[in-house]
């Protein structure tokens, strides 16, 4: 879409002001702009634009994006903003403001969230962008004073040199190892090298892990640090198992391969004890971490079905959910209550996965042929990590508003 010469001049003005301090709002500015940019500062559940610890610079950046949207829309009023204007600003922003790659797109999402919350937009028109590019984990760990430098060097070497591992899993394992390093420095500061570990020390760590609280030895910069300090909670059985599993993987890998640590090659670790046995998760913890499904009462299930069938824009507005269009939430809710599929299976569904025609090749989870039925449709779930693809039957709900009654 072309941009008028006047609009280009407006963009140049906004871009020129990017590196300068902005003046405080003047009382003569349009009231809609002042209300629009200060909604996030109002107390209560309507805070939806800026984070609680918003800085002055973030406020100024958000105001500039709001001003740009109003310039593009040729109106100083927030009520006049449209979905087309938001889309245009989203396309123009990276080209007219310096360093407008991530920060300004987050401001666009805040703008869109505010418009949906105020009822100006019916539903979002741009999806929430991915967060900022993750910083290389060793860069974050190298200056941590709460961990011994020797242990930290081994964790960084393990992260950078361990092959055949999923990056996310490897990063989570190293985060647990960092927590172990903080515990080690506080309780056994004389031990820093993995070869100094003994079976007795491993048993002591297992005992601590089974009694640990959530937030213990967590970095103060963690976004949930304050929450765990205010309301201490015992570590969940799954959390205990994850920490002990990280230790098993770490020491078992050190036994199988050598690493270059701080520029020096360290051969395979020779241990007189078995890591898988020393860091074994206790049987009661393993039993408690297993899934514990429970039956849902029939009246509760009917209420869930009714809620899925009557989901409306007002429900999303009340819950401050504006990430995806209403149609997405309706489809996901109906699939959840009718198809009995897991969350990961619903997430993998693609457009065109629902079929109503029956073919002899359709098989259920037990490998039996799916029988045709007029009241059923067939759901094709894409392959998972086990390369299993099945056709599932989903009951077609025929809802009549006149004959349906809301369950009590």
Structure description:
- This protein has helices at about 5-15, 30-35, 55-75, 85-95, 105-115, 135-140, 150-160, 165-185, 200-210, 225-230, 235-255, 275-280, 285-290, 300-310, 315-320, 325-340, 345-350; strands at about 260, 265, 355, 375-380, 390-395.
- By secondary structure, it is mainly alpha-helical.
- The strands form two sheets. A three-stranded antiparallel β-sheet has the order 3-4-5. A two-stranded antiparallel sheet has the order 1-2.
- β4 (about 375-380) and β5 form a beta hairpin.
- The two termini are about 55 Å apart.
- Residues about 1-55 and about 390-408 have low confidence and may be disordered.
Structural class: mainly alpha
Number of helices: 17
Distance between the termini: 53 Å
Low-confidence stretches: 1-55, 388-408
Summary tags:
408 residues; disordered N terminus; disordered C terminus; mainly alpha; 3 domains; two-stranded antiparallel sheet
In short:
The chain is mainly alpha-helical and 408 residues long.
Map the helices and strands.
Elements: H1 5-16, H2 31-37, H3 56-73, H4 83-96, H5 103-117, H6 137-141, H7 149-161, H8 167-187, H9 199-211, H10 225-230, H11 237-256, E1 259-261, E2 264-266, H12 275-278, H13 283-288, H14 298-309, H15 313-318, H16 326-339, H17 343-348, E3 354-355, E4 376-381, E5 390-395
Antiparallel strand pairs: 1-2, 3-4, 4-5
């Amino acid at each position: 879409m072309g941009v008028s010469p006047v609009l280009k001049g407006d963009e140049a003005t906004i871009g020129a002001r990017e590196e300068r301090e902005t003046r405080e709002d003047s009382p003569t500015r349009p009231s809609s702009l002042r209300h629009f940019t200060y909604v996030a500062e109002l107390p209560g559940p309507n805070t939806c634009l800026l984070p609680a610890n918003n800085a002055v610079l973030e406020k100024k950046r958000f105001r500039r994006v709001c001003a740009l949207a109003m310039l593009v829309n040729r109106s100083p009023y927030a009520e006049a903003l449209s979905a087309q204007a938001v889309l245009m600003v989203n396309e123009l922003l990276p080209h007219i403001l310096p360093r407008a790659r991530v920060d300004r797109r987050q401001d666009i999402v805040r703008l869109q969230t505010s418009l949906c919350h105020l009822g100006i937009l019916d539903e979002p028109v741009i999806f929430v962008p991915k967060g900022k590019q993750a910083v290389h984990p060793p860069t974050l760990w190298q200056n941590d004073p709460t961990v011994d430098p020797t242990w930290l060097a081994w964790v960084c070497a393990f992260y950078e040199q361990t092959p055949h591992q999923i990056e996310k899993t490897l990063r989570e394992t190293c985060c647990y190892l960092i927590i172990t390093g903080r515990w080690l420095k506080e309780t056994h500061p004389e031990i820093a090298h993995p070869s100094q570990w003994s079976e007795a020390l491993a048993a002591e760590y297992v005992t601590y892990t089974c009694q640990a609280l959530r937030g213990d030895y967590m970095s103060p910069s963690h976004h949930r640090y304050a929450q765990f300090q205010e309301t201490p909670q015992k570590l969940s059985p799954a959390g205990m198992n994850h920490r002990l599993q990280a230790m098993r993987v770490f020491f078992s890998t050190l036994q199988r391969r050598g690493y270059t640590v701080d520029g020096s090659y360290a051969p395979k670790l020779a241990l007189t004890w078995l890591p898988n046995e020393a860091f074994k998760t206790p049987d009661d913890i393993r039993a408690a971490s297993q899934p514990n499904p429970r039956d849902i009462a029939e009246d509760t299930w009917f209420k869930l079905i009714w809620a899925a069938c009557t989901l409306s824009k007002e429900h999303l507005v009340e819950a401050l959910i504006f990430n995806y269009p209403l149609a997405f939430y309706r489809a996901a809710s109906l699939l959840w209550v009718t198809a009995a599929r897991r969350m990961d299976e619903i997430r993998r569904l693609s457009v065109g996965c629902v079929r109503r025609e029956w073919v002899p090749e359709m098989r259920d989870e037990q490998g039996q042929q799916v029988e045709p039925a007029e009241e059923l449709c067939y759901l094709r779930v894409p392959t998972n990590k086990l390369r299993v693809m099945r056709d599932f039957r989903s009951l077609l709900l025929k809802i009549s508003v006149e004959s349906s009654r809301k369950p009590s």
